[in-house]
Amino acid sequence: ECSIPGYTFLQELSREEITALAEPVPDGPSTRRLAELARELGAALLAGLIESEGDKLFNTYVAVGPEGFVAKHRKLHAFISPHLSWGDRFDVFELCGVRSSILTCYDNNLVENPRIVALMGAEVIFAPHVTCGLDSPMPGRGKIDKDLWDNRDRDPVRLRQEFLGPKGRGWLMRWLPARAFENGVYYVFTNPVGVDHDTVKPGLAMIIDPFGEILAESHALGDDVVVALCTPEKIAESGGRRYLRARRPDLYAKLTEPLPEGQKPEIHPGWRLKTEEEKQKK
Question: Is the pTM of this model over 0.70?
Protein backbone atom coordinates (compact mmCIF):
# COMPACT_ATOMS: atom_id res chain seq x y z
CA GLU A 1 0.00 0.00 0.00
CA CYS A 2 1.12 3.57 -0.65
CA SER A 3 3.83 2.09 -2.85
CA ILE A 4 4.49 5.44 -4.55
CA PRO A 5 5.04 7.81 -1.56
CA GLY A 6 5.77 5.19 1.11
CA TYR A 7 3.58 4.26 4.06
CA THR A 8 4.80 3.76 7.63
CA PHE A 9 6.50 7.15 7.89
CA LEU A 10 3.12 8.84 7.34
CA GLN A 11 2.43 8.45 11.07
CA GLU A 12 5.11 11.10 11.67
CA LEU A 13 3.66 13.71 9.30
CA SER A 14 1.38 16.69 9.81
CA ARG A 15 -1.69 17.21 7.66
CA GLU A 16 0.20 19.77 5.61
CA GLU A 17 3.06 17.34 4.99
CA ILE A 18 0.72 14.56 3.88
CA THR A 19 -1.20 16.99 1.67
CA ALA A 20 2.06 17.85 -0.08
CA LEU A 21 2.36 14.17 -1.08
CA ALA A 22 -1.24 13.85 -2.25
CA GLU A 23 -2.65 14.03 -5.76
CA PRO A 24 -6.02 13.64 -7.46
CA VAL A 25 -7.15 10.36 -9.03
CA PRO A 26 -7.36 9.73 -11.95
CA ASP A 27 -6.04 13.10 -13.13
CA GLY A 28 -2.86 13.20 -11.04
CA PRO A 29 0.65 12.58 -12.38
CA SER A 30 1.07 9.11 -10.87
CA THR A 31 -2.13 7.67 -12.33
CA ARG A 32 -1.36 9.21 -15.72
CA ARG A 33 2.13 7.71 -15.70
CA LEU A 34 0.81 4.30 -14.67
CA ALA A 35 -1.66 4.43 -17.56
CA GLU A 36 1.17 5.26 -19.97
CA LEU A 37 3.19 2.28 -18.74
CA ALA A 38 0.15 -0.01 -18.95
CA ARG A 39 -0.35 0.98 -22.59
CA GLU A 40 3.33 0.43 -23.38
CA LEU A 41 3.37 -2.97 -21.68
CA GLY A 42 -0.11 -4.11 -22.69
CA ALA A 43 -0.74 -5.10 -19.09
CA ALA A 44 -2.66 -4.16 -15.97
CA LEU A 45 -0.80 -2.20 -13.30
CA LEU A 46 -1.79 -1.36 -9.72
CA ALA A 47 -0.12 1.02 -7.27
CA GLY A 48 -0.87 2.91 -4.08
CA LEU A 49 -0.73 6.63 -3.31
CA ILE A 50 -2.25 9.39 -1.21
CA GLU A 51 -5.34 10.75 -2.95
CA SER A 52 -6.72 14.23 -2.44
CA GLU A 53 -10.36 15.08 -3.06
CA GLY A 54 -11.62 18.42 -1.80
CA ASP A 55 -10.41 18.75 1.77
CA LYS A 56 -10.08 14.98 2.29
CA LEU A 57 -7.07 12.67 2.00
CA PHE A 58 -7.29 8.93 1.31
CA ASN A 59 -5.00 5.90 1.25
CA THR A 60 -5.92 4.89 -2.30
CA TYR A 61 -4.94 2.03 -4.58
CA VAL A 62 -5.27 2.56 -8.32
CA ALA A 63 -5.83 0.01 -11.09
CA VAL A 64 -5.09 0.82 -14.73
CA GLY A 65 -5.11 -1.26 -17.89
CA PRO A 66 -3.91 -0.77 -21.45
CA GLU A 67 -7.06 1.28 -22.07
CA GLY A 68 -6.32 3.65 -19.18
CA PHE A 69 -7.70 4.22 -15.69
CA VAL A 70 -10.04 1.44 -14.52
CA ALA A 71 -10.76 1.75 -10.80
CA LYS A 72 -9.57 2.88 -7.39
CA HIS A 73 -10.07 1.64 -3.84
CA ARG A 74 -9.92 3.87 -0.79
CA LYS A 75 -8.75 1.94 2.25
CA LEU A 76 -11.76 1.22 4.45
CA HIS A 77 -9.88 0.90 7.73
CA ALA A 78 -7.20 3.60 7.59
CA PHE A 79 -5.28 4.09 10.84
CA ILE A 80 -1.69 5.20 10.14
CA SER A 81 -2.65 8.88 10.42
CA PRO A 82 -5.72 10.70 11.77
CA HIS A 83 -5.49 12.96 8.71
CA LEU A 84 -6.54 10.14 6.37
CA SER A 85 -10.27 9.61 5.79
CA TRP A 86 -11.83 6.18 5.44
CA GLY A 87 -13.18 4.78 2.21
CA ASP A 88 -16.89 4.01 2.22
CA ARG A 89 -17.54 1.54 -0.59
CA PHE A 90 -16.58 -1.76 -2.17
CA ASP A 91 -15.84 -1.98 -5.87
CA VAL A 92 -15.66 -4.91 -8.25
CA PHE A 93 -14.43 -4.08 -11.72
CA GLU A 94 -13.30 -5.68 -14.96
CA LEU A 95 -9.50 -5.64 -15.30
CA CYS A 96 -8.17 -7.22 -18.50
CA GLY A 97 -11.26 -9.43 -18.64
CA VAL A 98 -11.12 -10.56 -15.00
CA ARG A 99 -13.63 -9.55 -12.31
CA SER A 100 -11.36 -7.93 -9.74
CA SER A 101 -11.44 -6.09 -6.44
CA ILE A 102 -8.92 -4.41 -4.14
CA LEU A 103 -8.75 -4.62 -0.34
CA THR A 104 -5.87 -2.77 1.30
CA CYS A 105 -3.95 -4.32 4.22
CA TYR A 106 -6.20 -4.14 7.33
CA ASP A 107 -9.27 -4.35 5.08
CA ASN A 108 -8.40 -8.04 4.67
CA ASN A 109 -8.33 -8.74 8.41
CA LEU A 110 -12.10 -8.36 8.70
CA VAL A 111 -13.63 -11.46 7.15
CA GLU A 112 -16.75 -9.57 6.08
CA ASN A 113 -14.86 -7.49 3.51
CA PRO A 114 -13.54 -10.24 1.21
CA ARG A 115 -16.84 -12.07 1.62
CA ILE A 116 -18.76 -9.04 0.34
CA VAL A 117 -16.61 -8.52 -2.75
CA ALA A 118 -16.80 -12.25 -3.49
CA LEU A 119 -20.59 -11.97 -3.35
CA MET A 120 -20.31 -8.99 -5.71
CA GLY A 121 -18.62 -11.27 -8.23
CA ALA A 122 -14.90 -10.78 -7.61
CA GLU A 123 -12.70 -13.56 -8.98
CA VAL A 124 -9.39 -11.98 -7.93
CA ILE A 125 -8.72 -9.86 -4.84
CA PHE A 126 -5.62 -7.69 -4.98
CA ALA A 127 -4.34 -7.28 -1.42
CA PRO A 128 -1.54 -4.68 -1.14
CA HIS A 129 -0.01 -4.63 2.33
CA VAL A 130 2.65 -3.10 4.53
CA THR A 131 2.76 -5.73 7.25
CA CYS A 132 4.79 -8.12 9.43
CA GLY A 133 7.75 -7.36 11.66
CA LEU A 134 5.66 -5.34 14.10
CA ASP A 135 5.37 -5.29 17.87
CA SER A 136 2.39 -7.39 18.86
CA PRO A 137 1.06 -9.23 21.92
CA MET A 138 0.78 -12.37 19.78
CA PRO A 139 3.39 -14.96 20.88
CA GLY A 140 6.47 -14.99 18.67
CA ARG A 141 5.71 -11.77 16.87
CA GLY A 142 7.71 -8.57 17.10
CA LYS A 143 10.09 -6.37 15.17
CA ILE A 144 12.80 -7.80 12.94
CA ASP A 145 16.27 -6.59 13.92
CA LYS A 146 17.54 -4.05 11.40
CA ASP A 147 21.09 -5.39 11.86
CA LEU A 148 19.94 -8.64 10.24
CA TRP A 149 18.86 -6.70 7.17
CA ASP A 150 22.06 -4.68 7.07
CA ASN A 151 24.05 -7.95 7.21
CA ARG A 152 21.87 -9.80 4.69
CA ASP A 153 24.68 -10.35 2.18
CA ARG A 154 26.99 -11.84 4.83
CA ASP A 155 24.38 -13.85 6.70
CA PRO A 156 21.13 -14.29 4.74
CA VAL A 157 20.17 -17.41 6.69
CA ARG A 158 19.33 -15.65 9.97
CA LEU A 159 17.33 -12.99 8.13
CA ARG A 160 15.34 -15.60 6.20
CA GLN A 161 14.59 -17.43 9.45
CA GLU A 162 13.00 -14.23 10.78
CA PHE A 163 11.14 -13.59 7.53
CA LEU A 164 9.72 -17.11 7.43
CA GLY A 165 8.99 -17.39 11.17
CA PRO A 166 6.14 -16.00 13.30
CA LYS A 167 7.22 -12.38 12.71
CA GLY A 168 6.63 -12.80 8.99
CA ARG A 169 5.28 -15.70 6.96
CA GLY A 170 4.16 -17.65 10.01
CA TRP A 171 1.69 -14.90 10.85
CA LEU A 172 0.42 -14.62 7.28
CA MET A 173 -0.26 -18.35 7.15
CA ARG A 174 -2.64 -18.01 10.10
CA TRP A 175 -5.22 -16.25 7.94
CA LEU A 176 -4.23 -15.21 4.39
CA PRO A 177 -4.80 -18.53 2.53
CA ALA A 178 -8.10 -18.85 4.41
CA ARG A 179 -9.40 -15.65 2.79
CA ALA A 180 -8.89 -17.17 -0.65
CA PHE A 181 -10.23 -20.59 0.38
CA GLU A 182 -13.37 -19.50 2.21
CA ASN A 183 -14.48 -17.20 -0.63
CA GLY A 184 -13.35 -19.19 -3.67
CA VAL A 185 -11.17 -16.40 -5.08
CA TYR A 186 -7.59 -15.83 -6.16
CA TYR A 187 -5.61 -13.65 -3.77
CA VAL A 188 -2.69 -11.51 -4.97
CA PHE A 189 -0.72 -10.41 -1.90
CA THR A 190 2.07 -7.83 -2.03
CA ASN A 191 4.29 -6.45 0.73
CA PRO A 192 7.52 -4.42 0.91
CA VAL A 193 10.87 -6.06 1.55
CA GLY A 194 13.59 -4.29 3.52
CA VAL A 195 13.67 -1.24 5.76
CA ASP A 196 10.38 0.63 5.98
CA HIS A 197 10.80 3.65 8.28
CA ASP A 198 11.50 2.07 11.70
CA THR A 199 10.64 -1.52 10.73
CA VAL A 200 11.94 -4.28 8.47
CA LYS A 201 9.43 -5.96 6.16
CA PRO A 202 9.82 -9.51 4.77
CA GLY A 203 8.24 -9.14 1.33
CA LEU A 204 6.76 -12.61 0.62
CA ALA A 205 4.59 -11.51 -2.31
CA MET A 206 2.39 -14.45 -3.26
CA ILE A 207 -0.48 -15.62 -5.42
CA ILE A 208 -2.98 -17.94 -3.73
CA ASP A 209 -5.59 -19.98 -5.56
CA PRO A 210 -9.27 -20.53 -4.58
CA PHE A 211 -8.29 -23.74 -2.75
CA GLY A 212 -5.93 -21.79 -0.48
CA GLU A 213 -2.85 -23.22 -2.21
CA ILE A 214 0.13 -20.91 -2.78
CA LEU A 215 0.87 -20.96 -6.51
CA ALA A 216 3.88 -18.64 -6.43
CA GLU A 217 5.79 -16.87 -3.66
CA SER A 218 8.81 -14.61 -3.42
CA HIS A 219 11.58 -15.21 -0.89
CA ALA A 220 13.84 -12.61 -2.50
CA LEU A 221 15.78 -10.16 -0.34
CA GLY A 222 15.03 -7.39 -2.82
CA ASP A 223 12.64 -6.40 -5.59
CA ASP A 224 10.97 -9.39 -7.22
CA VAL A 225 8.03 -10.49 -9.35
CA VAL A 226 5.99 -13.68 -8.97
CA VAL A 227 3.92 -15.16 -11.79
CA ALA A 228 1.26 -17.87 -11.72
CA LEU A 229 -1.34 -19.35 -14.05
CA CYS A 230 -4.85 -18.58 -12.76
CA THR A 231 -7.75 -20.47 -14.36
CA PRO A 232 -11.48 -19.82 -13.89
CA GLU A 233 -12.18 -23.54 -13.48
CA LYS A 234 -10.67 -23.49 -10.00
CA ILE A 235 -13.11 -20.80 -8.92
CA ALA A 236 -16.13 -22.81 -10.03
CA GLU A 237 -14.82 -25.98 -8.37
CA SER A 238 -13.74 -24.39 -5.09
CA GLY A 239 -15.29 -25.07 -1.72
CA GLY A 240 -15.57 -21.35 -1.12
CA ARG A 241 -18.11 -20.99 -3.92
CA ARG A 242 -20.16 -23.80 -2.39
CA TYR A 243 -20.04 -22.00 0.95
CA LEU A 244 -21.33 -18.80 -0.66
CA ARG A 245 -24.32 -20.74 -1.97
CA ALA A 246 -24.89 -22.37 1.44
CA ARG A 247 -25.25 -19.09 3.34
CA ARG A 248 -28.24 -18.39 5.62
CA PRO A 249 -28.69 -14.58 5.43
CA ASP A 250 -31.83 -14.87 7.56
CA LEU A 251 -29.53 -15.70 10.50
CA TYR A 252 -27.03 -12.88 9.99
CA ALA A 253 -28.97 -9.80 11.13
CA LYS A 254 -26.52 -9.34 14.02
CA LEU A 255 -23.76 -8.53 11.52
CA THR A 256 -25.57 -5.47 10.24
CA GLU A 257 -26.74 -4.04 13.55
CA PRO A 258 -25.38 -0.51 14.15
CA LEU A 259 -22.75 -0.07 16.82
CA PRO A 260 -23.99 0.99 20.27
CA GLU A 261 -24.83 4.66 20.54
CA GLY A 262 -21.71 6.78 20.88
CA GLN A 263 -19.36 3.98 19.83
CA LYS A 264 -17.26 4.36 16.70
CA PRO A 265 -15.38 1.65 14.80
CA GLU A 266 -12.12 1.01 16.64
CA ILE A 267 -9.25 0.24 14.31
CA HIS A 268 -6.35 -1.09 16.35
CA PRO A 269 -3.47 -2.52 14.32
CA GLY A 270 -2.11 -4.55 17.23
CA TRP A 271 1.02 -2.40 17.44
CA ARG A 272 1.51 1.00 18.99
CA LEU A 273 1.42 4.14 16.88
CA LYS A 274 3.49 7.07 18.09
CA THR A 275 1.86 9.51 20.48
CA GLU A 276 1.57 13.22 19.67
CA GLU A 277 4.35 13.90 22.19
CA GLU A 278 6.66 11.44 20.44
CA LYS A 279 5.88 13.01 17.08
CA GLN A 280 6.87 16.43 18.39
CA LYS A 281 10.35 15.08 19.15
CA LYS A 282 11.09 14.16 15.53
Answer: yes
For the chain, domains (ranges, CATH) are 8-280 (3.60.110.10)
Q: What's the rounded Cα separation, in Å, for the pair 278 and 276? A: 5
Name the 3-class secondary structure at 213: coil
Nearest Cα to Cα of residue 12 among 21, 3, 23, 4: 21
3-state percent breakdown (helix, strand, coil) of the chain, nearest 5: 30, 20, 45
Residue 152 gets which letter from DSSP?
Answer: T
Residues in contact with 191: Cβ distance below 8 Å, sequence separation at least 6, in sequence order: 129, 130, 131, 132, 201, 202, 203, 204, 205
- The answer to whether 72 touches 61, Cβ cutoff 8 Å, is yes
| Closest of 244, 248, 230, 233 to residue 121, by C-alpha | 244
Helix or strand run (H / E) with residue 93: strand 92-95
Give start and end residues of each alpha helix (H) in the chain: 15-21, 29-41, 112-119, 146-150, 156-164, 169-172, 176-183, 232-237, 239-245, 276-280
Give per-10-residue mean pLDDT for the chain (282 aa): 97 97 98 98 98 98 98 98 97 98 98 98 99 91 96 97 97 98 99 96 99 98 97 97 97 94 85 67 61
Q: How far is CA 85 from CA 76, 126, 157, 195, in A?
A: 9, 21, 41, 26
Residue 122 CA to residue 183 CA, distance in Å, equals: 9
Under a CB-based contact definition with an 8 Å cutoff, are residues 222 and 194 in contact?
yes
**How many Å is the Cα radius of gyration of the chain?**
19
How many residues does the structure list for the chain? 282
